[in-house]
Amino acid sequence: MSAIETTYVEPSRRMSVNGWAIVVIFLPPALLLFTVFVALPIAEAAWYGFYNWDGYGRPEKFIGLKNYGYLVGNATFTRSLINDGLVIAASLLIQLPFALGVALMVAGRITGAVWFRMIFFVPYVLADVAAGLIWHFMFDGGYGLPSLVTGALGLAPYYLLADKDWAFSAVLIVILWKYFGFYTMLYVAGLQGIDKSLLEAAEMDGASAFQRFRHITLPLLGPMIRLSIFFSVVGSLQLFDIIVPLTGGGPFETTNTMVSYLYYFGITRMRFGFSSAVGVVLFIICVTFAFGYRRLVMRDD
Amino acid sequence: MTETSVAIEDAAAAHEASGRSPPGLASVALFAALVVLAAVVLVPILATALNGFKELGDLQSHPFSLPRAWVWKNYWDILTGYRYWQVLGNSLLIALLTVALTLALSSMAAFTFAHLRFFGDRFLLNYLQLGLLFPLATAIPPIFIKVRELGLLDSYWGVVLPQVAFSLAMSVLLLRNAFKQLPGELLDAAMMDGCGYFRFFFYVTLPLSGPILSTVAVISFVASWNGYLLPLVVLNSESRYPWTLGLMVYQGQYSTAWQLVLAFITLTILPAIVMFLMAQRYIVAGLTAGAVKA
Amino acid sequence: MSLRHLTFAAACLAALTAPAFAETNVTVLHVSENATQKALWDKIAADYNAQHPGVKVQFKYLENEAFKAKLPTMLQSNDRPELFYSWAGGVMQAQNKAGFLKDITADVAAVESTMSPTAVDAFKVNGKVVGVPFEVGEVAFYYNKKLFEKAGVKAEDIKTWDDFLAAVKKLKAAGIVPIVVGAGEKWPMHFYYSYLVMRIGGEHALADAKAGKEGGFKNATFVEAGKRLRELGALEPFQPGYLTTKHAESSGMFGDGKAAMDLMGQWLLGMQAPNSASGKGLPEEDIGILSFPIVAGGKGKATDTLGGINGWLVSKSAPPEAVDFLKFFSEAKYAKEAAAAGAYIPVVKGANAVITDPLFKRLADDLAATTYHQNYFDQDLGPAVGRVINDVSVAVAAGEMTPEAAAAAIQDAAEQQ
Question: pTM (2 decimals)?
């Protein structure tokens, strides 16, 4: 690196004909596609949400806020909200710390660290749908993992996926299995970016491993951690592909997420006004989080 | 301290660190824990693969052991059938179209935002960034209606276009940042030589942006390859189903024959695993870089 | 010859040969996994194609759930099938209202006179014919004779609901799983609820509820039916893990002799063997049929039947060849072949005479003698309400929902239509 840095200041260019040509040719395609498939739909969702509409023809039965009224106090919808909340809580309190712990173990020079990192990352590469189906089999009471346990203990077969109180824990386990490797990778990248000399110096000054972690490593990982929280929450709110093959929302609609609720209770029942309303609610939650989080937490990153 | 002594200290410390290994017992315990974790991660996948080699009776009685008799027929039938290749081919086509269109549209837009100032440019950039705030799932009902209105229902484009649209926000952001980091003098020099923006884009910007374009391509490809909700809602003909839908159809059809379903799952996740192993450096770098730059 | 002559000749040649090259495709979309049915249908298609060059009729299969989920969108796209399977009822009415169906009243009048009037009426909407039925079915208890013997249960003695509950207890005491049900898919459980409504409220129960009499679905009949269902559920008569068992799996379990009874439609006979772990299923002589018991004090008769009336609907844009094929399909000779092969119970009058299979004959006789035939509730009520009735049936049986709450939920769904 040169001792003297020159800061390049972009001269303010006046727009030439050539420049305008670029704007007119390069920009519209992206803007058009975005408008048609992202901006317009969300506006339309807000509009459709005011109608009782089965999807055929045009919406005709205006019902104002009734769709939203159906959601308030709706046990299944409330359950879906809670489930999404549970996923976020489990991710933040269990999955991320666990991934960080594993990252600390494999960031260093332990034998086969690279292999471990790769193995942990493999589930992330699979589609959620495939993971859900694999674990549907793994959790089967008759011949899955539970059957190994119940068989060994001489108990009657236990059907975790049919247990309305504990079926959602199966969902959480699958999510943990699938995503911890990704966050481990993120944290490893972050850890490897930490200047070793800082840690050396602290050790020589008598700081214990825990103190080194708490006062040097953790703060320096700050941006990475804040980012992983963001991904975790946004990802949790979109959960759908895992639910369908694993539980189908059951038993008794205890394992729905907002998106699976939207699909099962809106789209498959041909209730497009209602499903749009659910989409709007999800949109508001997502935007509020994304906006708020970026402003409050990630301001300096 | 003088600069030299600091440097010597650093080198000594680094040297010490590289040679030093953690105390014996702790490292063995650590290693053992990691091995157990790796097993937990791999067992479901291995069990799925192995059970594809069993007869149903063997599977039901010994789901977690090696097959008593290796049945090759399950895998062979799937590999020699057309359905498997059809769904993989569909996924590949959809993913490639998505990547191509994403790269084209987002690089063009990013270039415009990176180098040109015009009335409303800030506004349009923020407009696109709105796409970062919410996922595709929230807008599925109106997207379905929109796709239907455009006559794209049950077509590959009905899946590709919404996917590209939703990836634009992130891609434009990544590419714009990368384009801006290219030395500004290049553009100045080019303009003085009479090279217009267009030629600069094609002959300088794109060639120099290989890594970031690969990153965007990888992110885009992986997201499309594993997509489920959008094709589920948009596609009707089984002949156009990507592998994610094909998997669920197969499971619906052979629901009781778990040995067949598990074999099918194994074969359909194989491309992803193979792609990952071959290119894992790039994929991981891409995904984590994408995360860092966001 | 001048260029003009050549062009003219070419045009004439093209015009003459064009019809030979242009083939009319008729796709018939269905959900059947029954090998006998499919073989027969392919044969009928082949016969028709041979007799009508230039027309290609093809039967196309789509899995049941996928069919129900995808059909609405298919009918709006260019991939719509010309003919498609239907359970009639509210779903068909919704499809008609959306303008997807063709009025074929005039075209099929001759064919309809050969069929049972109930079946023909099932495929009319507002007086006009939109489809042609081809099969009727009955939901009944299929039981494993050997398991009944083992527990000392006699089928002939089961006449009332209380008799039935007593039999269930006896089976349980003998260590046998009394009932297998594919509650993972929900609709198999709603058969119990539906029959109970019919046995308690009689033939007007459903129609009255739909019309909103006495609180609609919240009326005493539906609540009482829920209570009876809960009575059964409280005995824990179902196989372990029944809440996640799918229909195919449950059929296979019946075929493996893992449970004594299955309340199911006639297609169980074709499914229990292929889906069983042994691959062989139960031999037919070991299977018996038991009609759903009456509820003491209820208005329903033992001869009221619940079951499907199935047929083919014609989509609006279908070419005349599609309707022509429909008439061809409905010919008596094919109906008789179907009956004889045990593919399905046809609606064509007189075809049942050739049925030899005793189980099939029993069903056909029941249907011929029926005092009131009701279509499946979840089809009759349409897509949204139908799914609710499926959901609550499972919830009530498992004790997760009170009968009153269940009835109220159905009423809410009906009002939101």
Answer: 0.84
- Quick one: A3 exposed, middle or buried, by C-beta within 10 A (0-12, 13-18, 19+)? exposed
Strands (E), C97-238: 124-125, 128-129, 131-136, 140-144
CA–CA distance, A248 with A242 (Å, rounded to integer): 9
Would strands C24-30 and C304-306 be described as parallel, antiparallel, or unpaired?
unpaired
Which residue type sits at B38?
A
**Residues A24, C40: Cα–Cα separation, whole Å:** 62
The answer to whether the Cα torsion of C365, C369, C371, C373 is positive or negative is positive
Residue B193 has pLDDT above 90, yes or no: no
Whole-angstrom distance, CA of residue C357 vs CA of residue C341: 8
- Predicted local distance difference test score (pLDDT) of residue A131: 96
Query: Between A and C, how many CB-CB pairs are < 8 A?
Result: 51
Residue of C126, C125, C204 lying closest to C374 (CA atoms): C204
Q: Which residue shows structure tokens 């006789």?
A: C365
Over 70: is that where the pLDDT of C327 sits?
yes
- Rounded CA-CA distance B104/A15 in Å is 23
| Cβ separation C400–A248 shorter than 8 A | no
Q: Touching B: which chains, 3+ CB pairs < 8 A?
A: A, C
Give pLDDT tens digits for B242-281: 999 999 989 888 888 889 999 999 999 999 998 888 877 6
Chain C nearest-CA distance from B239, in A, is 12
10 Å CB burial of residue B253 (0-12, 13-18, 19+) is: middle
**Closest to A134 (Cβ–Cβ): which among B116, B124, B265?**
B265
Pick among C68, C100, C243 to test the A interface (most A CBs inside 10 A): C243
Interface list for A 193-252 with B (CB within 8 A):
196-197, 200, 224, 227-228, 231, 234, 237-238, 240-241, 244-245
Separation between Cα atoms, residue C83 and residue A39, nearest integer Å:
38
Which residue, chain included where needed, has tokens 């796409």?
B131
**pLDDT confidence of residue C16:** 53
Cis peptide before A251 (omega within 30 of 0): yes
d(CA A298, CA B294): 11
Please determine, for residue C391, whether its predicted confidence score (pLDDT) is greater than 80: yes
Nearest to C65 among B57, B151, B252 (CB): B252
> Which pair of tokens denotes residue C1?
């010859």
Burial A173-193 (b: 16+ CB within 10 A, else e): ebbbbbbbbbbbbbbbbbbee
What would the 3-class secondary structure string for C74-135 be? HCCCCCCCCEEEECCHHHHHHHHHCCCECCCCCCCHHHHCCECHHHHHHCEECCEECEEEEE
The pLDDT tens digits for A251-279 are: 888 999 999 999 998 888 888 999 999 99
Read off the tokens for B90.
Answer: 């569909």
Question: pLDDT digits over C197-210, tens only?
Answer: 999 999 999 999 99
Residue indicated by tokens 């569909």: B90
Residue of C nearest to B256 (CA): C249
A227 near A186, Cβ under 8 Å? Answer: yes
Nearest to B168 by CA among B235, B98, B76: B98
Give A204's pLDDT tier (boundaries 50, 70, 90).
confident
Residues above pLDDT 70, as percent of chain C: 95
SS3 C27: strand
Closest CA to C240 of C183, C169, C174, C173: C183
CA B288 to chain centre: 11
Name chain A contacts of B141, Cβ cutoff 8 Å: 45, 48, 262, 266-267, 272, 275-276, 279
What is the share, in percent, of chain C residues with pLDDT greater than 90? 57
**Rounded Cα distance, A84 and A200, in Å:** 42
Name the more confident of A281 and A19.
A281
